[in-house]
Amino acid sequence: MAIPTQLTAFPFAGTPSPNLKGASLLRWGAKHPPIDPHVSFAGKTVLVTGANIGLGLESAVKFAQKGASKIILGVRSMQRGEEAKTEILTRSGRDSSCITIVQVDLEKYASVQEFVKKLEKTTRLDIALLNAGLCNQTYVRSAEGHEMAVQVNVLSTALMALLLLPLLRKTARETHSPTHMTFVNSAGHAETEKAWLKDSLLSTADDEASFDVRKSYMMVKLLGMVVMKKIARQANDRNEQDGVIVNACCPGLCRTNLGRNFSLAMKVLTAGFQFFTARTAEEGSRTLVGASALGWESHGKFWHHDVLFPMSDLLQDEKLVNTCWMEIVQALPADTVGSAQ
């Protein structure tokens, strides 16, 4: 029997009880990891950003194991990219020709623009898994003048998504098959409260005086969901022959190095907590890989615990969403504004 090339999502089945909160909810997630998707990526060219560590690395391994013809590793360090390539090939048994390493630093717009120019030289792009991200314990300002997580997780990711859309559309038209753009996010986005916002969501998340590691994390994730929703609206007219399926996913709490910039004390505390409440990076990567194979029912939706999961009610506030998107676009390089309309 042939392995399917697309998965079908079903809403709400098998999700945790709404009575579970906090550590109990996380423990449920650890005890009920996602199913490893039974799907083939044969013939596909796949991009994974943040591919040298954690969820990105595990996703790249899984894409290789499931037959992807070409895997592009978007990494900040070429040396670490080479190390990741070696691990991927060792674990998948694939030939080195299936891996391409392309350097990108999401702290800088120019690096993102140059990265996409390099990718445009490839003949096709079937899947863009936008996974790169970080979380800082304290406020850090990027070279572009924004809070670092806002810069990397939101602004530069939005820029990359906008610039990749033409290549994804082109591949879909030429192959007569939908392509995919999947944003890695978190169910924590739904914990953002409107009362936290001093002015707009972006300005509050970007404000040093307002920085709180927990609240800032949630707001950055909500901003990321705004990006996904807006990109999904722009991507296509749901032409199932040559469109781009855009969705977001949450792997749940996983044992990764997302908090690599935390203090030693915080790392020790986090590691102890995650031992009992977190999934492994491999288990989390099942969600990322599965989301990138979903059909049109997932377009503009959120994949979590192997189902299409409810999103924050704030994403139903069109004024808030439109204001957020306008501010995000205004923060991007001027020459990309036209493609964001």
Automatic annotation (TrEMBL):
Alphabetical list of Pfam families matching this protein: adh_short
Signal peptide region: none
Keywords: Oxidoreductase
Molecular function (Gene Ontology), one example: oxidoreductase activity
Record protein name field: Short-chain dehydrogenase/reductase family protein
Organism: Dendryphion nanum
